[in-house]
Amino acid sequence: MSDAVSALAGAAYEGYCQVSDAGLTGMVTIRGDLGAAKVKAAVKKATGVALPGQGAIVAAKGRKLAWMSPDELLLFCGYDEAPGLTAALTEALAGQHALVANVSDARVVLRVTGTQAREVIAKLTPADVSPGAFGPGQMRRTRLQQVAAGFHMPDETSFEVIAFRSVADYVFTLLSNAARPGGEVGLFDG
Amino acid sequence: MLILECPYCGIMADETELTPGGEAHLKRATVGSTDDAFESYLFDRKNPKGVHFERWRHSAGCGKWFHAARSTTTLEVYGTYAAQVSEPPKELVAKIKKKCPGWEGWQ
């Protein structure tokens, strides 16, 4: 077996917020009609996580299930359990018009932590990440400068950003630059 | 800056998160049509000063295509609706007619 490494190999940057590689993360894309009762039941049974509503992310048992579009979910799990979960989901969804794919190695997950984390993200995205508009439990697919990305907030002072593996370095550089000391804007202070 | 509400994810999406798809509700002139009709389908576009129906794709978001009605002069957005229709919803047309009495209709 090949030795799996994350795209950024543990890179970290210390600015007025911390930007770091979240390491190997299992990610499974599930596509299907999320309005269909059979699809919902199968996904819940195979993952053990309740289905998220529109724009939401639900966590349970160390896994997270995020709503990506009306017919797409993204499951975050342990890197090692992703192949097993993919197989279980494929089996559970057999006969349905659905598709399951293990995309762990096609994506990168970064973490931005710090009391000003919202500001660092706000510098790069058109999405409204102000405290009243965005918070933990929500998933947002948008862009970070020139590339597609998605993010959610595990807690009030951190973001988890997902992007395509091919642009991992670009996203890391973007976030690090936005978090550079001296770049504080104080957007969401007070 | 144009801000459209994606009817699929409910997000007020900024123009930079979207990809424009041109005029909406075009009807393809297909097999058996005249050359003139086909040429018109390919090239003739409305380009109105005022109310315009367009296709947009939430490309940096959920990835879905949808429809939007907006004014080309004021950028006022009258509404957005799903892609799986061949004509605009009646309520939306009524709403626009009320707002723009001189409007000649969407067809």
From TrEMBL, chain A:
A Pfam family annotated for this chain is: SoxG
Q: Matching Gene3D superfamilies, A to Z?
A: Heterotetrameric sarcosine oxidase, Probable tRNA modification gtpase trme, domain 1
The protein depicted here goes by the name Sarcosine oxidase subunit gamma
InterPro entries referenced in this protein's UniProt entry, alphabetically: SoxG, TrmE/GcvT-like
Biological classification of the source: Bacteria, Pseudomonadati, Pseudomonadota, Alphaproteobacteria, Rhodobacterales
Out of the domains of life, which is the source? Bacteria
Automatic annotation (TrEMBL), chain B:
InterPro entries with a match to the protein in the record: SoxD (IPR006279), SoxD_sf (IPR038561)
Q: Which Pfam families match?
A: SoxD
UniProt name for this protein = Sarcosine oxidase subunit delta
The organism is Sinisalibacter aestuarii
- Classification lineage: Bacteria, Pseudomonadati, Pseudomonadota, Alphaproteobacteria, Rhodobacterales
